[in-house]
Design brief:
The structure is a homodimer. In chain A, the strands form four sheets. Chain A has a seven-stranded mixed sheet with strand order 2-1-13-3-4-5-10, sandwiched between helices. A two-stranded parallel ribbon of chain A has the order 6-9. Chain A is α/β, with parallel strands linked by helices. Chain A has a single domain, classed as Rossmann fold (3-Layer(aba) Sandwich), CATH 3.40.50.720. Chain A has ten helices and 13 strands. The two termini of chain A are 22 Å apart. At the A-B interface, helix 4 and helix 5 of A face helix 4 and helix 5 of B.
Chain lengths: 319, 319
């Protein structure tokens, strides 16, 4: 869903945008002026075609989510890191000016010794997902050193907002809104006291664009709200903003992949670029609820919107 | 050559040892009581057979050297990290008590902000080799967390000593001794002022055994001499100990993969275990020269000793 938002924003700004993803059919929510190329990330020739002639590449592809990645870390590595190294080779060959990578502020650090977490913290991921993201960061630095390929890493916290369907096992905000609208039960892993940093998708898109045009010395920046909310607080707030009565909820045992608290220190990106998170939490929730209502998921809970949109695109910008 | 020394030492100590490597024929320098299994690291079934029934696994396999790894980082990743994740799965399945991994103190840190480098330093490798080693460290921590597999990481500096042939593009000490004995020219990358930490192989074997039986809280330890020598100093000292006249040398441009200085802070392993590096530099050189002379490389420069021994084995100990 970050991909859709990023492509549409770039397109609205006048850029010539190509999106690459594994969906066979073009996502309906993608603006018609965005070129769509369908392909698998492990097929070098397809993405070579997508990268050709592009000035900037935004790499948002991730084939797994943290919890799944621990079931088969080797598969996660093969599906995400290996093709990324091939992608970087293609970017060098095609003369791409810069690669902006969506890394994971929620997983690369592992269990933080302090919050909010600065970029200089140690990186001890507790999921295959986090190890893959971290390895990709290291390869970006290597390709920069060896071949001069410019790059920027955005370590993003938990994104929420429009185009997040809430019908996959990802995205607490969207899942909760969806279930609340459908009057379904919400299940919480653990006691709900786990703390997370939630950032509105438009703010993330803006951050990635700032980083794309940033020329300072820092290559790795946290992108989040900088504030932490417990899972329980998130659900309470959705209840409040939605104003349709109590959300039916229960708790189940926590997952080993969950770190107890994660809030990102965003002072680096704030001081180095003009970026600030500008969409306030309740306002972000309100917009997410509005989008979900407009997507009419109550009438069509299994068909509304596009499936497989989440974190799939490599939008490329030709400006 | 670490593998040969480790296997023979374990065997001498009464352990039942199985060695696994890609050589088709059994290394002649391997003690006859050490069981030899030949296989490729990307063939899970072969190493599954090697791991079965083992109490401890020493993972020393590396299919590349730092400089080569940058020519094709994806191949390095596929050949080293992917099979290691499979190996860890096999170790869990077979009930292995502990995996001891030979990581690289010379490459995982990248360009250090200070020397000697403590384990807590940031890890920003400048070679695919270093990224692969670092990723393996992270997977070891992950498997420990997810499946309780015990592990220990030894970040080893530059090993030298017997069984290092000096006929491959690795091992400054062995290469220099070999060339000096053959009255061949020695080529130095850069101005020779690059600083490295050299550690005698017997000290490394002893360190790996200490780490194998260590039960304290630290999982990652530097293993080196703790002191730095310039490349020029190494060659001067070999000249001195060998005492066969001046070594003919010249300089060629430095490699991008070389960090300017690398000396490991070994205070952690010294305080946590009983280990100390005990073989003094000149004594280590004397023994290395003696071994090289006994291997009769002057008479048979292309056949003496075993080829492909370097860093190939996964010796396994059944105690």
């Amino acid at each position: 869903m970050l991909g859709i938002n990023l492509c549409n924003t770039l397109n609205a700004g006048g850029a010539e945008v190509t999106a690459f993803g594994r969906r066979l059919s073009r996502p309906t929510s993608l603006h018609q002026d965005v070129k769509w190329i369908s392909g698998h990330f492990d097929d070098v020739r397809t993405f070579e075609h997508a990268v050709r002639g592009q000035e900037f590449v935004f790499h948002l592809i991730s084939t797994t989510i943290p919890d799944d990645s621990n079931r088969d870390p080797a598969a996660d590595l093969a599906a995400n890191v290996l093709p990324t190294v091939r992608l970087l080779e293609v970017c060098c060959k095609e003369g791409v000016k810069k690669v902006v990578f969506s890394s994971s502020g929620g997983t690369v650090y592992g269990i933080p010794s302090r919050v909010p977490i600065p970029e200089s913290s140690s990186t001890e991921p507790i999921s295959g997902y986090g190890i893959s993201k971290l390895a990709i960061e290291k390869y970006l630095a290597l390709f920069h050193r060896l071949h001069g390929l410019e790059y920027h890493v955005c370590r993003i916290s938990n994104i929420y907002g429009p185009f997040q369907q809430g019908n996959r096992r990802q995205g607490l905000v969207a899942t909760t809104i969806r279930r609340a609208l459908l009057k379904e039960h919400v299940e919480i892993w653990g006691d709900g006291q786990v703390i997370r940093d939630f950032v509105y998708v438009d703010d993330v898109v803006a951050a990635m664009l700032c980083c794309c045009f940033y020329h300072g010395p820092y290559k790795v920046m946290n992108v989040g709200s900088g504030t932490g909310l417990t899972i329980n607080q998130v659900i309470d707030d959705i209840e409040l903003v939605l104003n349709e009565g109590a959300i039916d909820r229960s708790h189940r045992p926590g997952r080993t992949v969950d770190v107890p608290r994660n809030t990102l220190d965003i002072s680096l990106i704030q001081s180095e670029t003009s970026w600030q998170p500008i969409v306030a939490w309740h306002e972000g929730l309100r917009r997410s609820i509005e989008w979900m209502k407009a997507a009419n998921i109550v009438a069509n809970p299994y068909t509304a919107g596009d499936r497989h949109e989440q974190s799939r695109g490599v939008p490329q910008l030709k400006s």
